[in-house]
# Entry
Amino acid sequence: MKHVTVALDAMGGDRAPDIPVRAALRAATDHGIAVTLIGNQESIKAILVTESYPDHLINIVDAPEHVSMEDQAVKAVRGKRRASIPVGLELLKSGDADVFLSAGNTGAVVASSILSLGRLPGVDRPGIAIPIPTAKGPPLLLIDAGALVDPKPEQMWQHARLATTFYVVANQVSNPTVGLISNGEESGKGNGLVRAVHKLLGDDEQLQFIGNVEPRAMPERPCDILVTDGFTGNVILKTGEGIVNLVQESLRTEFKTRWYTSILATLLKPAIRRAGKALDYREYGGAPLLGVNGLVMIAHGGSDVTALVNGILTAARSAERNTLAALATSLDSNVNAQSPNADDRSG
Amino acid sequence: MKHVTVALDAMGGDRAPDIPVRAALRAATDHGIAVTLIGNQESIKAILVTESYPDHLINIVDAPEHVSMEDQAVKAVRGKRRASIPVGLELLKSGDADVFLSAGNTGAVVASSILSLGRLPGVDRPGIAIPIPTAKGPPLLLIDAGALVDPKPEQMWQHARLATTFYVVANQVSNPTVGLISNGEESGKGNGLVRAVHKLLGDDEQLQFIGNVEPRAMPERPCDILVTDGFTGNVILKTGEGIVNLVQESLRTEFKTRWYTSILATLLKPAIRRAGKALDYREYGGAPLLGVNGLVMIAHGGSDVTALVNGILTAARSAERNTLAALATSLDSNVNAQSPNADDRSG
# Structure
């Protein structure tokens, strides 16, 4: 294992810089990970002075400008070169950090990453691969969670390849299975985009393609990787968030209806809270932005310290395992770009 | 109120004809609704002989052929003219029934309805408007739940108009609000299709358009009607199903971890079951297929007797209120077809 440095956006997320700084301190203290905090130097120092921690593992790089969650991605990228996101990406580019993690404005992270780092060979547009909790086994990887809302079929095939490489390195397994989100399992199901991607994935012998997967099957973990366009991926995640909230709300209402259920519910609260946590993808830390020429991970804006510590650990592990070098060769045997009908050549 | 007859597909759904027949008997006995059962005459009679019910309210129309849930919609429509779906639609067309309800193969119901009944004036393609439970108020109406997976923007605008009319008649209110499913609330968010539909809905002064809605906001009921394409609508429903199952599974697992939570959970089971039911869109009965020239409602294939009785009641109410006549005029002032830039004429 090489020693790695995680560049952490100290200004990203709902309660920045407080949560990112405390997450960095815990990652350094408990796990010996070197973290460079990027953000408003004075605000960061104001938190650090009240804490004790291993000094040699924590660095600060000043980034005086601010990108808010509401800023439009493109404007943020063009106008604010000294904000934490572009400054962090420059550290990555110069080799002063091995991976960049941000809970800030996702659109700004995606746009800045493409601009600062460029893309990996053969990649048109990067995708966000988000870990999704399931009823059994490790979380499955859903790509794309929202980086590219209007992909071409070839771009979704590129995402399938990138996610496969990431999954192999992250989980130290070979031949992870790939499914395609659709409105039915049969191969003819789906909109025009899905049907075109189905053919590309099926034609690629390097992918373990299992066919279409309905979203309701996700909790049963039908495959390791699920491919979808960024619009649909984002809709799935946000439907999930809404429904988990609705279930918790319904249980609360229901428990209030009788005096004894109310008492029982109070006793059960910790169990219900744990069940909710098992469903919360924030717990699983960062989601890699796959396809840019650098290791970039995105955390949920609502991440708490625990979630962000998990994100730092995931980021550090990815860097230690030379994930970027593996990703750079993901599209080397580019069957779909070079000969989309390779199977038909004999015909 | 006029006296109406509900034509019920006795062969549709997971446990047909048992569940449809029992639902028809309960609707007739408890609610005085006339139901015509369409399906295999002998199987239906075999259930009826064991029951007592108001004879004059129950009729049977024989439909000897069978469309399975797995049959491809187009094949089913072309090859099986004497199956319950086409026979039921013919009853509707001839005026022998006022509304047709089926828990069978949705694709076959949609395709057969277009073929048998034709479309309402100004409608290109019908959409399925499904009631979605929320934390407060009546269920909101989501259109399209899967009839049209690759719509044009104008077709989604047509769905918005049709759903508005249906909501007005069904809930006896005026000016229901309309939202558009997107991956962000800002008006620039969404894929190309969503951005085009956003403009069409915003330009139509007859719609109370509130803008984009993220799926996570659905439980808070941000509007009365939500418009989306059939692919995304289906993905939302199936993500919801999957997550409700996952939550129930997680709670079960969690409750088992300690002996006292296990005992408490047993005591709480009825409350948890009720909470699950409040989230189950099957409870809300049928979803209207809007845009065809006849009242057609689709029930979930997994409907139990209670759900199907609710579907029969909803169907009967729709017929009593002359919903079809109202729907037929939904697109009369067709701003988007006739002059998409009506607002700009003065400029």
Summary: The longest strand of chain A covers residues 34-39. Confidence is low (pLDDT under 50) at residues 338-347 of chain A. DSSP finds twelve helices and eleven strands in chain A.
